[in-house]
């Protein structure tokens, strides 16, 4: 097993980014597990072979609760967390202030966690929208800083 690059391990911003990114990936796994549990509880399977294994083809169907987890919450995560992973990695290379970077990563992470909780528990509006919007702020900030840093090279 190759030892981690000492330079990489010394980059406090990148280590902070790695920490929050891992939390977000784990959160996505939790949503996937919850989706599977809701499928089993509601007996709503996306594939005929799964339905047959769990009671019959009548359970090869869609369910609004499963769709809320799988299609909407999980897809929304992919639409937002994947760009964050790119932006955060590049932003980490710009040598930003570790404290400012940590605030960016923390706000995004908390915003996405609140967004998921609001989605899954069907919390009253505008909880989910506010969480979404708050989480977008650090992404726009990082994107702008990346563009400003790379403009001379276009």
UniProtKB/TrEMBL annotation:
Keywords: Cytoplasm, Fatty acid biosynthesis, Fatty acid metabolism, Isomerase, Lipid biosynthesis, Lipid metabolism, Membrane, Oxidoreductase, Prostaglandin biosynthesis, Prostaglandin metabolism, Transferase, Transmembrane, Transmembrane helix. GO terms for molecular function: glutathione transferase activity; oxidoreductase activity; prostaglandin-E synthase activity. GO terms for biological process: prostaglandin biosynthetic process. SUPFAM superfamilies: MAPEG domain-like. This is Prostaglandin E synthase. The keyword Ligase does not apply. Pathway: Lipid metabolism; prostaglandin biosynthesis. Pfam families: MAPEG (PF01124). Its cofactor is glutathione. Signal peptide: none annotated. Terminal enzyme of the cyclooxygenase (COX)-2-mediated prostaglandin E2 (PGE2) biosynthetic pathway. Catalyzes the glutathione-dependent oxidoreduction of prostaglandin endoperoxide H2 (PGH2) to prostaglandin E2 (PGE2) in response to inflammatory stimuli. Plays a key role in inflammation response, fever and pain. Also catalyzes the oxidoreduction of endocannabinoids into prostaglandin glycerol esters and PGG2 into 15-hydroperoxy-PGE2. It catalyses: 2-glyceryl-prostaglandin H2 = 2-glyceryl-prostaglandin E2; prostaglandin H2 = prostaglandin E2; (5S)-hydroperoxy-(6E,8Z,11Z,14Z)-eicosatetraenoate + 2 glutathione = (5S)-hydroxy-(6E,8Z,11Z,14Z)-eicosatetraenoate + glutathione disulfide + H2O; prostaglandin G2 = (15S)-15-hydroperoxy-prostaglandin E2. The chain crosses the membrane at residues 13-34, 100-121, 130-148. Its EC number is 2.5.1.18, 5.3.99.3. It is a multi-pass membrane protein. It comes from Cathartes aura. Belongs to the MAPEG family. Gene3D superfamilies: Membrane associated eicosanoid/glutathione metabolism-like domain (1.20.120.550). One of its GO terms (cellular component) is perinuclear region of cytoplasm.
């Amino acid at each position: 097993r190759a030892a981690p690059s000492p330079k990489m391990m010394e980059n406090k911003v990148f280590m902070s980014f790695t920490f929050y990114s891992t939390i977000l990936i784990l959160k996505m796994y939790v949503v996937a597990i919850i989706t599977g549990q809701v499928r089993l509880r509601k007996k709503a399977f996306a594939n005929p072979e799964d339905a047959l294994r769990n009671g019959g083809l009548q359970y090869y169907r869609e369910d609004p609760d499963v769709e809320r987890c799988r299609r909407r919450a999980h897809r929304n995560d992919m639409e937002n967390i994947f760009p964050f992973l790119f932006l955060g990695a590049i932003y980490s290379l710009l040598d930003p202030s570790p404290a400012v970077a940590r605030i960016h990563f923390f706000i995004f992470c908390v915003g996405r966690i609140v967004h998921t909780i609001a989605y899954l528990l069907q919390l009253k509006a505008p909880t989910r929208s506010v969480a979404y919007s708050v989480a977008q702020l650090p992404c726009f900030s990082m994107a702008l800083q990346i563009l400003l840093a790379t403009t001379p090279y276009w």
